[in-house]
Amino acid sequence: MDVDAGHGAALGGALPTQPGELPLTRRLRSLLTWPTSDADPVNALVRAHRSIHASADSSVLRRAYTIAENMHRGQFRKSGEPYITHPLAVAQICADLGMDTITLVAALLHDTVEDTRYTLQALAEDFGREVAHLVDGVTKFDKAFYGKAAEAETVRKMIIAAGKDVRVLIIKLADRLHNMRTLGVRSAASRERIARKTQEVLIPLCDRLGIQTLKRELDDVVLLHLEPDEHARIARHVHDRPAGWDAYLEDVVAKTRVALRRSRVDAEVAPRPRHLYSIWKDTVAGGHGAPFDLPRISIVVAGPATDCYAALGAVHGLWRPVPGRFKDFIASPKNNLYRSLHTSVRGPQDRTVEVLIRTEEMHRAAEYGVAAHYRFPRTTSRAADRADELAWLRRVLDWEQEAVDPAQFLESLRCDLAEAQIQVVADGRQVVLPAGATPVDLAYELSTERGDHCLAARVNGRLAPLSSELAEGDVVEIFTESDAESGFEADAAPRGPRREWLGFVKSPQAQMQINRWFAEHTEPGISIADKVRLGRATIGLALRTHNRGLASDLPLLRLSEELGYPDLETLLVAVFDRAVEPDAVVRQLIDLVDHRQ
């Protein structure tokens, strides 16, 4: 759907518009740039589609275009162009991705229900329920009716629709990409607002779907509108690279090919230039004054994943690897299931060179993500693997039902899609969490039941506060009330989370489940007796990490006296309230018992 942006036809050959042009000038420009030299505006779309799907039915595309053009006739974009240029461009982006015919039909019609008299029922009768579902999924809610909640409700509706058919999100991304390409005629404030929303929600969605070929362009155009000076600086750097840059990369590629042949690895080797946003991001992250842009190549092996490691050995045998710069995303894929080996080496002239190594299937998945299943239907992974790619979407749909307030849902979605994430190991599997997540976040990620009854956590073998931040690669064990010592009366213990958890949890799942619990329970706050029982249970869990236990309360009573507590109950309450760490109490307790023996 349009955001009242303006540009040319965005199908090639169109002259770029400039901010500040008069409407008449824009209209004259549109007459010069529309239609293109191709007498039939649908021809380019059909050619692109059939170049990937040779047996595709072009007649349904032409019929969809005819209806869209008729419905939008008389409507113009702010650039002065006929409105039909927008849905046609969105369909072209989908065709270039390799999407199926149904997606292209929906892309051509995606704004008709919202902006014309064409109804969803008529669309379903003309093109079927599948197309109607996709169009409905990207149709915005009426601001006049929903007011400020319209945007959040629209995003929620789109996510729910994508749960049934992910192509809804692909059309939305193509729609936003074309609008971002044509944002120049808007005011500076509007450009910044739209670019910011794109950065906060749609680019992370694109990343989760794994469609890097779209994400790269979205990243760059957002940088253009949010950081125009930095965009210009990086663009100048790329344009003005020294003459020897290309020759150096050709030398690296040639030497790499020789090394791979010697190792009997069949692979394609090519330069892999960074896009502008990627260079800017690394420049800022590293605190560099000049643009930080290392030479980079990609190796795409023709064989199985094991050949990636053979290629890695060949590269490391040719050039010395840079310590700390190796990442194995094959053994541990990213949260969008991106898989590759990343390494950096000291290449010719002792310059650092980045190397990406992947199989052909990994390469297709890295470029096209979920769209790869439509672009390469006969060569992509099985259905179970494809389902794993959308595990995050199922998780969002799970907690979406808990978010009554649409603004809360949108904020939680932004958090869930945050780029900064970590992976920890729990219950023998990898779990993805937001950066800064705590054991409580993990407990709720494992299950609502474990989150509600979380009592303690062990991180890398040591008892840790529930508020402690987890780090990449941590091995975490979650203990609940039922895991406590047999002397712990679980039935008498308070059921549910603690309010202070809301002060440190990071994940939407944890925040919503904690709020849900307190909304459903109106019991008074936790009693001193409950704190005593839970404090004793916490010490029991900590003792078990040292293969120890308590036959009676006598050692605890002696320790409470030595630590200056008036009685044992006060010590146990302090343990529960984390005024004193359980592990510290246990170490002192063991020293006390062993010393007295």
Automatic annotation (TrEMBL):
GO BP annotations of the record are:
guanosine tetraphosphate metabolic process
Keyword line: Kinase, Transferase
Answer yes or no on keyword NADP: no
Pathway info: Purine metabolism
Q: TGS domain location, by residue? A: 418-480
Gene Ontology cellular component?
plasma membrane
> Superkingdom, according to UniProt?
Bacteria
GO MF, one example: kinase activity
InterPro entries, per database record: Beta-grasp_dom_sf, HD/PDEase_dom, HD_domain, NT_sf, RelA/Spo_fam, RelA_SpoT, TGS, TGS-like
Which stretches are transmembrane?
none
Q: Which family does it belong to?
A: Belongs to the relA/spoT family.
Give a short account of what the protein does.
In eubacteria ppGpp (guanosine 3'-diphosphate 5'-diphosphate) is a mediator of the stringent response that coordinates a variety of cellular activities in response to changes in nutritional abundance.
Query: What NCBIfam families would the database entry show?
Result: spoT_relA
The name on file for this protein is GTP pyrophosphokinase
Which source organism? Micromonospora sicca
